[in-house]
Structures are given as structure tokens and as C-alpha cells.
Write a structure and sequence with these properties.
3-stranded parallel beta sheet; 2 domains; 11 helices; globular; mainly alpha
């Protein structure tokens, strides 16, 4: 710890284990930090397999410095209001809708934005996964049309309603659309 920094307790308000953002926090922040400081390598060199080593890296403090928030982001915001020295983990959409109350910390010098997430430059994000069983496309009436609708410019493009909900448009949307068009 840098002695020149203020001696102030900082609480981290992080998504609970059942929250989708928690997985991103664990893999893109906790695990990467664990690797950066060498702990992951020590765990692996000490005989742990990959998954148990990752699980060790995902562990958070249990002394009250880290608080799991099982509710939505408004609960995290309320916790920050009550703890001004705290830090919280939010999705981009919530951040952008609350810039009067929140500001983003840079990660590796990169500020989160629609552009930095779409380009892959901002390291703490996750894609929306949309899975369809190929066999069902020909068996379920309207399935292919639904998939085409979901990945259309009108829905999944940068001006579509998915963007209104904070999802960053796929920078390779045309390639995704071509894959869908090729489904039989």
C-alpha cells in the first residue's frame, strides 16, 4: 500500500454471485488481477488445476471491505450514497444514465464507452450470447425469421432498441447477419 495515499477505508460494492455482471467482474477484473500480480501462476505451480485456481482468484474479502449486492444497480448506487469512499461495479447503461451521480474509473487507462467497448479496447465487458440449436431452425416455424429479426440493423444495430438498453452494437453485425442468412 502506498503510504502517501489517505488512510481511508474503502468499501467495494460488487454484484452478488447470481448477477450476470459478477461473472464479468470475476473473469475480467479479479482473474486478470490475480494473473498480473503472479498469484494465479503460484496457484498453478502449487498443483492446483485451472478451475480451482480461478476459484481462488475469485475470492473476495470477508471482513466487510467487499459487499455483495444481490439486487439491481440502484441498490449499489444507494450503498455508494451511504459510503462516499466506496466503489461500485455497474453496467455501462446504468453508468451513462447516472452521470450526475457516478463517474467511471479507467481500466488500464481506458474509459468505458460505447466506442471502447465495441472496439474491444475497454477490457471489462462481455458479449450477448444468442444460442440456437441448428436442428430447431427447420423444425420450429418462424425460428429463422426470429433470428434474422433479432440480428437485424433495426434491432441490433447502433440505433436499435437493444442500444437503448445499454447493449453495444456488434461491430461485426454484417458478418453475424451473413451467418444467420446461411442457416438452412
Amino acid at each position: 500500500v502506498d503510504a502517501s495515499l489517505p488512510a481511508v477505508a474503502i468499501k467495494a460494492f460488487i454484484p452478488g454471485t447470481k448477477h450476470g455482471t459478477r461473472e464479468v467482474f470475476e473473469t475480467k477484473v479479479m482473474l486478470e488481477g490475480c494473473k498480473t500480480v503472479g498469484t494465479y501462476k503460484k496457484l498453478m505451480d502449487g498443483g492446483l488445476e485451472k478451475k480451482p485456481a480461478e476459484k481462488e482468484c475469485f475470492k473476495v474479502r470477508t471482513d466487510g471491505a467487499s459487499v455483495d449486492i444481490d439486487g439491481d444497480y440502484t441498490e449499489t448506487l444507494a450503498s455508494l450514497d451511504a459510503n462516499p469512499e466506496g466503489i461500485g461495479v455497474f453496467g455501462l447503461s446504468f453508468l451513462l444514465n447516472n452521470t450526475d451521480k457516478l463517474y467511471a474509473a479507467k481500466v488500464n487507462g481506458i474509459e468505458p464507452s460505447t466506442e471502447t467497448i465495441a472496439s474491444g479496447e475497454y477490457p471489462v465487458s462481455r458479449p450477448l450470447q444468442f444460442y440456437v440449436k441448428n436442428a430447431h431452425v427447420s423444425q420450429v416455424p418462424g425460428m429463422k425469421e426470429y433470428i434474422e429479426f433479432f440480428v437485424s440493423d433495426e434491432i441490433a444495430g447502433p440505433d436499435g432498441p437493444l442500444a437503448d438498453y445499454g447493449l453495444v452494437s456488434d461491430p461485426e453485425l454484417a458478418a453475424t447477419q451473413a451467418l444467420v442468412a446461411a442457416i438452412n
